[in-house]
């Protein structure tokens, strides 16, 4: 069925039924379930004879149409089309659309792949129009109800490409692997959302395409499904705890449909080594993927910012133009690279939440030069010193009471005159083995009497 004919049919039906076509359906409302995990919305499994029972939803595609299942064409057993779209107007979940080619056969499936079940890229904003069904797996979906009835064909339209949303950070396995009918928390709250889990150990399962593994942290275990269309075959996971980004999903085929939660991972590059502390980045190789969770932004600079552990044990540079402010709490997954011998993280995924600005830790030149054994690189510090000489390139020398010279990169901040005693709040970096204080603003320079 051509897309134009179907759209016109929907418009005519809307006009006849109500005089005007109503707006979009609310995805969160469509996904309501009862105590058995069965969909309760009145349009679930509703009659297809009434065009008003169609739903129209819009959201961001969390995976391309060829990243999860093999959509063909041609048709065949195992050839299926699916999209997961997340509501981009709120934090409230998303919905899956699914169609199996074997209900149609060729040439109809090939035709539908060109007109209705069209190619979509991850990050596309799409509109889906079709009928709801309870999938019998703990979730409500848009599908053709396992029929080749042309009325049940759903239509996908691409509206734009805003890009993938930030994943939601799930604080622990225990926070997502339980059933709550109210969806105040648990698996129903996170279902069909792009999500990150941190600190996972593999309990069982093979590392291969279309493999369901069990992963766990100290609070419990949950499923992790590696995509059929992924690139996991022949590869190995990072050696250690994992930081993983994927689509949170459910597949529970027995009543009650209150279990079977899983994180559906698209590709190898969405899996990283989970680090506990920022300073651990320094021991990782360039190109290695790492993840850090719940770290605090200390200072932001043009093109990068620093994060540090909440306990102020260490910090690391994150190379990003993302707008952050001191105190933001971030989770990051990305690749390790080097800038002038400093190991940094270039993020693929970045989650930013609000928090309280950190306080600097007081140090002297002895700590900055690591003469005491304390490593403060990447940390927000306060150093009492005297302004020294302009070294060029925005760098000034400083001297403190310990008598050793240190340096500050002003980043455009105007310093008081030479000899002025100041307290400087700055992040500690390093240039060719020499400690360098990085100023972020004039507010970080305090003139002392």
Folded structure, characterized:
The protein has four domains: 3-160, OB fold (Dihydrolipoamide Acetyltransferase, E2P); 168-271, OB fold (Dihydrolipoamide Acetyltransferase, E2P) (Beta Barrel); 275-353, Beta Barrel (OB fold (Dihydrolipoamide Acetyltransferase, E2P)), CATH 2.40.50; 361-447, OB fold (Dihydrolipoamide Acetyltransferase, E2P) (Beta Barrel). 8% of the residues lie in helices and 39% in strands. The longest helix has 16 residues, at 3-18. Strands 8, 9, 10, 11, 12, 13, 14, 15, 16, 17, 18 and 19 form a twelve-stranded mixed sheet that branches. A seven-stranded mixed sheet has the order 5-6-3-2-1-4-7. The protein has helices spanning 3-18, 27-30, 108-115, 186-190, 365-368; strands at 55-61, 80-86, 94-100, 125-130, 132-134, 140-143, 155-160, 168-169, 194-204, 212-217, 220-226, 242-250, 261-265, 271-274, 289-301, 304-308, 315-319, 329-339, 342-353, 361-363, 380-392, 395-400, 405-409, 421-431, 434-438, 445-447. A hairpin with a 7-residue loop joins strand 2 (80-86) and strand 3 (94-100).
The CATH homologous superfamily of the largest domain is called Nucleic acid-binding proteins
What fold name goes in the CATH topology slot of the largest domain?
Answer: OB fold (Dihydrolipoamide Acetyltransferase, E2P)
The domain count comes to 4
Instruction: Report mean pLDDT, rounded to a whole number.
Output: 93
Number of DSSP strand runs: 26
Proportion of beta-strand residues:
35-45%
Helix content: under 10%
Main β-sheet description: 12 strands, mixed
The secondary structure category is mainly beta
